[in-house]
Design a protein that fits this description.
The chain has about 300 residues and is α/β, with parallel strands linked by helices. The protein is built from twelve helices and nine strands. The longest helix has 29 residues.
Length: about 300
């Protein structure tokens, strides 16, 4: 039987809310905060305490979990929480922060005597709600007994990548994985866009690849969201995908690798967001194939 932990969840958007709910359902005490309080309020039904400030949320926390927009946002929120952070508490940093931001976050952890775990997750709304995420984690072995119950509550498995969270090995793996996810998402949208332009029924394409090595469940899932006009609620929003794509491009530039597909992906997501699809599922990058004035909902 796992000892009951007090877990502070800072950031209760699509992913953070689902993670907080599953942590509470696993029997732990959850103290939640979100910049827009209304997004956190539904967690009270699961027994979570919703705080007005980050500092109030982290009071007495054994584990602080951050699931925010990016690295700078995570650092700003942790600075706001700083007066109430408990020395020796574990910080599970699950924001997709990018390589450059990890050093700043790890430095903050050292300053406030926090045990830092670089722990981004793979998955979208549905696996998050089901507690079936994949947790990519790096951090010291001696503190893993505290964070493992949290990882078990939110994920189906944990992949350890190292013992130094500040080295960013988990974040690096997350960026590699996301580079594939975002590329496939945009390829799926372009398949539909080209089908529309050439007056080809998408089903004919699916018949051609059916059961072969080119077929994949993810392709069918993302195209299905577009074809069935089911882009909301988002599994993973266009604006977040654009941010992650930019982090991937920056990582490539930092290490001397040209990532043309990732750069194009970032542009497509940003264009779709500018057309008004920012809060829709990232499959809405489909619309970036068309001029804004000529967009149609017909498939």
């Amino acid at each position: 039987m796992t000892d009951k932990l007090t877990v502070s969840v800072l950031g209760t958007g699509i992913m953070g809310a689902a993670m907080a709910r599953n942590i509470a359902r696993a029997g732990h005490t959850v103290r939640a905060w979100n910049r827009t309080r209304a997004k956190a309020e539904p967690l009270t039904a699961d027994g979570a305490f919703v705080a007005d400030t980050p500092a109030a949320a982290v009071q007495g926390a054994d584990v602080v979990l951050t699931m925010l927009y990016d690295g700078p946002a995570a650092l700003d929120v942790m600075r706001a929480a700083a007066p109430a952070l408990r020395s020796g508490a574990a910080w599970v940093q699950s924001t997709t922060a990018g390589i450059e931001a990890i050093a700043d976050l790890a430095a903050f952890a050292r300053e406030y005597d926090l045990v830092f775990y670089d722990a981004p997750v793979l998955g979208t709304r549905e696996p998050a709600e089901a507690g079936r995420l994949t947790v990519l984690a790096a951090g010291p072995v001696e503190g893993r007994g505290t964070v493992t119950p949290v990882f078990d509550a939110v994920g189906a498995r944990t992949v350890w990548t190292g013992e130094d969270g500040g080295a960013g090995t988990a974040t690096r793996l997350k960026l590699v994985a996301n580079s594939w996810v975002l590329a496939v998402t945009n390829a799926a949208g372009e398949v539909l866009a080209l089908s529309k332009a050439l007056d080809v029924e998408p089903q004919r394409f699916f018949e051609v690849i059916d059961g072969g090595p080119l077929d994949m469940g993810y392709l069918r899932a993302k195209t299905g969201l577009v074809l069935n006009d089911a882009l909301t609620p988002a599994q993973f929003a266009v604006t977040t995908a654009a941010k992650d794509a930019r982090l991937i491009v920056e990582a490539g530039e930092r290490y001397g690798v040209r990532l043309d597909v990732a750069a194009a992906s970032a542009q497509r997501f940003e264009r779709a967001a500018a057309q008004g699809h920012g809060d829709e599922d990232m499959a809405a990058a489909y619309f970036a194939s068309f001029e804004e004035a000529a967009q149609e909902r017909e498939r």
